[in-house]
Write a structure and sequence with these properties.
single chain, 76 residues, mainly alpha, 2 helices, rod-shaped
Length: 76
């Protein structure tokens, strides 16, 4: 099995060079890039949302403990 990364624009240029389909190939490449970017955007948004939710819970616990410490602290 041949493992390699296929450059989308390079493939579009090769296919477009064979005939008069330059615009079609570049539009297809743009659509593929947009789909890939949208997938990554959704995945990173989900990860950021998940991380933010955990951070919010963590800071709420810290605030709760700080309030408890300041209210129950006796003067020295």
């Amino acid at each position: 099995m041949n493992d390699q990364v296929i450059e989308i624009m390079a493939v579009a240029k090769i296919v477009a060079g064979d005939g008069c389909r330059c615009l079609e190939m570049y539009v297809d490449a743009a659509i593929v890039y947009r789909v890939i970017c949208t997938v990554f955007e959704k995945q990173f948004a989900a990860l950021e949302n998940r991380a933010g939710r955990h951070k919010k819970i963590f800071f709420n616990v810290i605030q709760h403990h700080l309030r408890w410490l300041t209210s129950n602290q006796t003067p020295l």
